Amino acid sequence: MTGIAAIARDPNGKILDEISALVRTKSVQVAEALALRFGSVLAKRWQWESIIFESDNKELILSVKNKSFNCWGSLAIEQDIVSLLNSVSACLSFIPWTANKAVDWIAQCTRKGICPLD
């Protein structure tokens, strides 16, 4: 089991919304794709028109950005992300893990069953 999370922040860094879940998957790519899909769901839920997605998974970012879908295990999830983001202006960007510790903290707390934002 692993915890996954997505955080929505405004331009000043204030947290607007968060979504997290405990999932069972053998693939890091699938877990990362599910987290990016969560972010896409938040964008759709709030009807944001312009959004920046950041992930420390460069392969996933390139796959969704280029619609190349190279990973069979996360193919359907990646296609769903593209579909969810069809109506918004989305920028997908790679950032190192160390630059986004808040999401990692929420994912770890979710895995432990102690997420304060649930």
Low-confidence stretches: none
Total strands: the figure is 4
For the termini, the CA-CA separation is 17 Å
Summing up helix and strand content along with how strands pair, one would put the structural category as: alpha+beta
Mean pLDDT: 87
Strand order of the largest sheet: 1-2
Oligomer type: single chain
The 3D shape can be described as: globular
Which CATH class applies here? Answer: Alpha Beta
SSE pattern, N- to C-terminal: EEHEHHEH
* Percentage of residues in DSSP E strands: 15-25%
CATH architecture call: 2-Layer Sandwich
- The percent of residues in helical segments reads 40-55%
Task: State the fourth-level CATH superfamily.
Answer: Ribonuclease H-like superfamily/Ribonuclease H
Put simply, the count of helices is 4
Number of domains: 1
**CATH fold-type name:** Nucleotidyltransferase, domain 5
| Rg over CA atoms | 13 Å
